[in-house]
Amino acid sequence: MHRAAEVVIREIVGGSVGTGEFLKQLAEISMKGNEYSLSDKARWEATMSHFQQEFSGFDGERSVFFVAEREEKVVGFARASVHPGRPRQWWLNGLEVLQEHRGAGVGTRLTRARIKALSKRKVGSIWAHIRKSNIPSLVVAHKVGLRILTDEAETITGKHDDSGRFWFLRMELPGA
After folding, report:
1. CATH class (in words) of the domain with range 4-172
2. What are the domain boundaries of the chain?
3. pLDDT per residue over 32-84, tens digit each?
4. How far is CA 144 from CA 25, 53, 66, 137, 159, in A?
5. Is the pTM of the predicted complex or chain greater than 0.85?
């Protein structure tokens, strides 16, 4: 485990995405975080395609993206995006930290960076859905001020999720 002080949190802004190597690092972290084999070629191509699409034309207006880097290598990332049709409501979607960096505060720092960036934008509320089995993410969410609303997706999204696998959380931002 590495100390959080060794990790630098950096916001990715429009035009600063960088190289294909950067996208490969994101894809690798995502694959490992979801426990997919890096040798699964189809999954790798789909994951790379996802990140290429996410960053094509990325301007930072409808989403924010942060990376955690150690010695110029990405060890984690997090993003948030505006809810379609609700410009003052944003979703925290995506928090991945490499296994060997978990438990060192990297996820908390990435989440706080997202909240700070959204506070500056005068966002009204921040929402998240966290898989019930993902206790570390739930701990991070509570640590930064998000509170559980319900585990019924229909209440939040208008779509019924009969799996009962997710907690839905929310945080109101002051001064918005």
Report:
1. alpha beta
2. 4-172
3. 887 888 889 999 998 888 888 777 766 677 888 899 999 888 999 998 988 88
4. 27, 30, 16, 11, 27
5. no
